[in-house]
Amino acid sequence: MFEVVHKRQLSDAVFEMGVRAPRIAGKIRAGQFLILRVDEKGERIPLTFSDWSAEEGWVRFIFMRVGKTTHKLSHLEVGDSLADAVGPLGVPTRVDGLGRVAVVGGGVGAAVAYPVARAMTEAGSDVTVILGARTANLLILREEFEVLPLHELLIVTDDGSAGEKGLVTAPLKRLAASGAIDHVMAIGPAIMMKFCAETTREFDVPTTVSLNPIMVDGTGMCGACRVSVDGVTRFACVDGPDFDGHAVDFEELMSRQRVYTEEEREADAEYLRECECHR
Asked: Given 33, 66, 257, 264, which residue has the most CB atoms within 10 angstroms?
């Protein structure tokens, strides 16, 4: 059993959770993920590591409460346990030899951007982080980014309630146009990653995107995370989650993301009705 040792609510629907998993914690590298089940009858979901400690034997992940499983997960408290967890899975993010890097974290994607930016600074890269969200109260891990030895931390919100008003692509374009960056790592909603890649394509800046948002089963068997990369079918969970953003077919990817939207909505509604009945 994987005991919950840490829980923190970061916004109305976003939670940070830590569980005791010493064997997993000892092997993690930035960009990898785990598969967990809340209970023995629950579905398996992939969540990318946001932090870990090999010495203390814990791992952390951040999730948004959007469906049945994440609703159930959000109800766990310190002292409760997950049914199981498997990891680390996925190909680690390349963090060395990149020179001047811009790491773009949008929304909950900041959870993945944080360990990636940390690993890149440790590897000697000159890292600028662009952290974006719709509003100031949806910015997560800002304090954690502020203590990293970054070249610069740029905050962007859609409504201007924190940092620069606008989208993350605006400061990204300025950096690319000025020749200030050699590589970009974009992590966040698919639409954000698409436009980050389109922004950097104009300036021929190599861009990596993390396709963890489309993973389901995490082993390559379900096929839900199929994505065309340079015309070749790849699987985000076993071949990635990192790919060349300029080669990803984002239209196909986003179309696949919408396939089970209605079923997910119905399952969540049914679960909430069950919760009401047991009160």
From this structure: 33
- Strand blocks (E) in the chain: 2-9, 14-20, 33-37, 45-53, 58-64, 81-82, 84-89, 100-106, 126-133, 152-157, 164-165, 183-187, 207-210, 226-229, 232-235, 242-244
The domains located in the chain, with CATH, are 2-89 (2.40.30.10), 100-257 (3.40.50.80)
Other C-beta atoms closer than 10 Å to the C-beta of 104 total 31
Q: How far apart are CA 251 and CA 255, in angstroms?
A: 6
Q: Give me 174's structure tokens.
A: 């300025």
CB 88 within 8 A of CB 60: no
Q: Which of 259, 200, 212, 260 is nearest to 239 (CA)?
A: 212
Q: Answer whether 0.85 is exceeded by the pTM.
A: yes
DSSP for 260-271, written as a single string: THHHHHHHHHHH
